[in-house]
Amino acid sequence: MSQHFQKANVTQSSEIWTILQQAIARRKADGSDQWQDGYPNPEVIQSDINKNAAYVLIEGQTIIGYCALLINDEPEYQNIEGQWITNDDFVVFHRVAISESQLGKGLAKKLMQFIEAFAINNNIYSIKADTNFDNHAMMAIFDSLGYVYCGEVYFRGTPRRAYEKVLEQKR
């Protein structure tokens, strides 16, 4: 069955929240502090949808993944302790989560490939992201997909590892 990536709508909020709740529980089970402070929550999803930043990975009629995508919209990234590779337009993604029933199928990587296509379709050749210091699975995905560690950024007072991937421009 093929998968596609599209903007989320308000009718999908509860499905998205279920997937995020599963991811929050997984992070806790992994002994991580990430997402254990009441964030993300249903209001965050609503805000993502209102800003046209909410995207879902769908297989058939089922939502199997979620992320928020923003263009040039992450104020905390201006305060990096380190240095970004580029200072051009960028896509930033947050809140990547895959449905519990779909784990181990490489869908986080697939989601990130859709994000790269989204960037290129918008003539943007930089993707920036961050993750918790204890989110080893995400760090491994960043490494495998060619992201470069650029330094630290802070969210809600907590340091996070910041990454950037520069995409190849088709000539």
Features:
single chain, 171 residues, alpha+beta, 4 helices, GNAT_dom, acyltransferase activity, transferring groups other than amino-acyl groups
Description:
With 171 residues, this protein is α+β, with helices and mostly antiparallel strands. The protein has a single domain, classed as Aminopeptidase (3-Layer(aba) Sandwich). Helices cover 29% and strands 32% of the residues. The chain contains 4 helices and 8 strands. An 8-stranded mixed β-sheet has the order 1-2-3-5-6-8-7-4. Helix 3 links the parallel strand 5 and strand 6. Helix 1 crosses helix 2. The radius of gyration is 15 Å and the shape is globular. The model has no long low-confidence stretch (mean pLDDT 94).
Category by helix and strand content: alpha+beta
What number of structural domains do the residues give? 1
Biggest beta sheet summary: 8 strands, mixed
Please give the CATH architecture: 3-Layer(aba) Sandwich
Strand order, main sheet: write it out: 1-2-3-5-6-8-7-4
Organism: Flavobacterium faecale
Protein name: GNAT family N-acetyltransferase
InterPro entries: Acyl_CoA_acyltransferase (IPR016181), Bact_Acetyltransf (IPR050832), GNAT_dom (IPR000182)
Keywords: Acyltransferase, Transferase
Task: Compile the SSE list and pairings.
Layout: E1 3-7, H1 13-29, H2 42-50, E2 54-59, E3 62-71, E4 81-82, E5 91-98, H3 107-121, E6 126-131, H4 136-144, E7 148-155, E8 158-166
Parallel strand pairs: 5-6
Antiparallel strand pairs: 1-2, 2-3, 3-5, 4-7, 6-8, 7-8
Helix pairs in contact: 1-2
